[in-house]
Each structure stands twice: as structure tokens, then as C-alpha cells.
Amino acid sequence: MISVIIPFFNSEKTLARAINSVLKNDFVSEILLINDGSSDESINIAMDFVNSYLNINLYHHPGMKNKGACASRNLGIMYSSCDWIQFLDSDDELLPFKLASQVPLINDDFCFIVGNSIFVDLKNRQKKIFYFKDPWVGLIKSRLGNTVANLWNKKFLLKVGGWDESLFSSQEYDLMFRLLKINSNIGYCMEFSSIIYKQVNSISTSIELKNIRIFNWIKLRNNIKTHLISINQFNFLRRYYFYSYIYKFHNINQLPYLNHNGIYYWWFYSFILFLKKNLFLILNSIVIKNK
After folding, report:
1. Hey, what domains does the chain have and what are their CATH numbers?
2. What DSSP line would sit under 227-277, residue for residue?
């Protein structure tokens, strides 16, 4: 019922964990391992699984080249045989109930099903990442699931041309934006059913790629705003989150932001955060006193 696509590049330390996490799930018809030009032991690890399981296959790019995660996912889509696809990065994992919690929600009209995930940082601290129910606000806030947390309808992936292979960041949110532009029907699963591990050499931690990440992040949000205005759906809630998060992102990255029309949303957003923080402190102090 589900094709699982796992691209890998020099993932000898984590690939087996990722594959084993899939094998603990029901509803898996096939696992497609996509070698993205690896030069370590990960190819041998992949072959061990291929030789042990009939539903696991290994694929390479022509010439065994390294073409990136998006190209590898697209190669997996091309070889997949199922109508729904689960993507899994080789350094992340699915919890055993991941597919069992999302498969019952499958609807042929959905372009994807949004899931929640657990994020683990470099110090092994865990944080639960919740989705936002309004899909456009979810896109703006980066709270509409992610590559691994979501389950994807192959039919609609093909309609938008799959993953944009030119992107090195904001990949899944660019994909979801293009999907939502042609079909706003999506499902939601409240379970926290995947674990995302932050890596030292990931796009989000690499200093060399920081400017690319910033550019892609801002460009995508501006494209979302332009689209919502064009379909007359840029309502107060979406304007509020758009300008609040644009200002927040610029402040964090120490960038100037010249659109003064949105500063009032940022002030209001900051005020709400201030109230929440102080309300929490007050309630916490009351609880401590009553103990």
C-alpha cells in the first residue's frame, strides 16, 4: 500500500536505524533505497538489507553521481509502484505506529496528510513539533509537518513535477506550497510518529549555506503572500502570522526589513508573547506557593 523512499549519502552510521524503523511499520509494500553517490560503507549496509528482504531494492543515479536529496527522492518516485509515498531521510526514523496512524486517513482527494514529529537537537534534547491547522499559516510558520512526518499522494506529486532539485533548503515547504496551489485538500494526523535528528552538517547548521537558507525562506513566504493576495485569501490571521514571522526571521538573522506596514503585526505578536511568558511565570509561582 505504501512505497517508502530513503535517499542516503554517506550514511553508514544511521542508515540501518532508518531502514529498521520502516520494517517495524505495517502497510509497507516496498522500500526504495536511493544511493546519492555514497563513498562509505552505507552501500554495503543497503545491500545487506536488499539481500535479506524481497521488498527492499537499491537504486543509483547514472554514473553513481551525487545529485542531492531532491533528485534522489524524485528518482524514488519514478521507480515506486504505490499510490502513496512515505519519504524518510537516512538520519531520521519512523515510530512503529507511523503508517498505521495515517493510512486510515488516506483519501484520494488529499494531496498529502500532515503529521507531527519529535525533533532531537545536537544535545539529544527532544521537542515536539505541532502542525498548524490552517495550511497557509502552517506554511508561513513552518508548521505543516515535514518531509518525514507527512504522507504523500503520488498522483499529486507527479502533477507538480515532484521535488525542486535546485533547492538546498525549504524543500518540503516549496513542495507543499506548489501542491496546495493546485489542491488545498489535505488530511491531518495528530500523532507524533516520526523522529527528526538535527545533524552537524545539515543545511540548517552549515554556515556556508546560511545565506541560501535565508534567501529561500524569505522568497517562499513572499510567494505565499503573493498567491494568497491573488486568490483574495490573505485575511487578517494570515497577514498577522506572515508579518510577525517575517519580522521575527529578520530580527533573528540580523537583517533589515523595510516594509513598515507590517510592523504593527510584529508589535502585537511580541506583546502577545510577552503576556504569555509573564502569565506562565505568574501561574507557575502560584502553583509553587500552593505546594
Report:
1. 2-197 (3.90.550.10), 210-290 (no CATH)
2. HHHHTT---HHHHHHHHHHHHHHHHHTT-----GGGHHHHHHHHHHHHHHH
